[in-house]
Design brief:
Gyrase A, domain 2, 16 helices, alpha/beta, flat, 3 domains, 460 residues, Four Helix Bundle (Hemerythrin (Met), subunit A)
Length: 460
Amino acid sequence: MTQKLSGWDDTIVAIATPQGIGAIGVIRLSGKNAIVITNQLFPSKDLIRQPSHTLHVGLIKEDNAAIDEVVVSLFKNPKSYTGEDVVEISCHGSPYVQQQVVQACIHKGARLAKPGEFTQRAFLNGKLDLTQAEAVADLIASNTAASQQTALHNIRGGFSDVLKKLREELIQFSALIELELDFSQEDVEFADRKKFYALIQSAEQTTTGLLHSFQLGNVIKNGVSVAIVGKPNAGKSTLLNTLLNENRAIVSEIAGTTRDTIEEIINIDGILFRLIDTAGIRDDSSDIIELIGIEKSREKIEQSDEVIYIFDVNTESAGELQGAKALIKEKNKNYLLVGNKTDVAGDAAAAEKFAGESVLYISAKEQQHINLLKQKLVDKIIKGNLNTENTIVTNARHYEALQQVQASLIEIKNGLDNNIPGDLLALDIRRCLHYISEITGDITNETVLDLIFSQFCIGK
């Protein structure tokens, strides 16, 4: 079980705002002496006598030398982020001034905080569980509406609530089964096996749903890479420029202009797409530099999550399109066929030429059907599943533990099917509870905590 670790009863200090010059900088202290330390630097008022959740204006001084005029915010335990006494000093945003305030706090007995130490103390003091703590880091790192809302959902306890409900029900049945063991000679049954079986089936479905959500969660958190491939002069660079709404790639009528890959990020409906413009793929080039670019294009197909195969509807044949599809399928990649330059051939003629193929026809140069292409990309990735009010797994640690939870639930169900003795059933339940508790942090160790919180920024 989680417990207060040694060395966690001191007072820490750190700058909580980003590095660089700004209007305001915030220095945060947490610990049993946070208010006492600040009080020694703030002669304007006796902060120890002031109530919690109040603001105070005055000078920060060290050895009677004024450092800055500040606003001090008091949050007395347990009603604070960390559950300890917390002080936030809002000073002017000069990096020099901020460092002077931090050093003054250290001179009075504070210690410089480690990355994530404020949130780690919040976890250790029971202000939030481990999934909520990790969601804090996700929220700080969020760069789209989808990642923001998913993190907020988990901070509010969305994921935790699902796990806590399952854990409580399993504990209840485990207690009843272990009670049966105490009366084993009297052949009594306290746990309703039918209800328990229904619970396990429901839990298995819930766990399966969470595991399936990880693929989408990974997209929300990390984005998706899309390789734009095709023959030379098919319009790959023009499409990239059109999607980005800027001239990022050089466009020329000369085949083989793009020699190296170009990568740019675009946000479409809350999903980050990393678009990769590649060199045109052809077999008849004698240009050594172009051949290197073609080889890189093949590598990018391997590395990408999705492939846009763009082709010129005026010059590509139906047979050549089949060959391109075979190449992409051989690499086991999801793909979208995009027929370009329909401003020349016309949509109807292109559709007749490639009848039977699932092709989206566009004109990258004239920006025709580009919004439809964007929507197709989003639909292929999220498959209609993007609802940030649902619990979506975005953390690899959670995913691995959930796999163990699912395996344990299957063992429990098999045990019920085979009428195994209560003591063996109780062992399977305990194993399942162990993995659930690893996710929420009810069972953890200092090494795991250090690894998780080391990924946070200092001051949070």
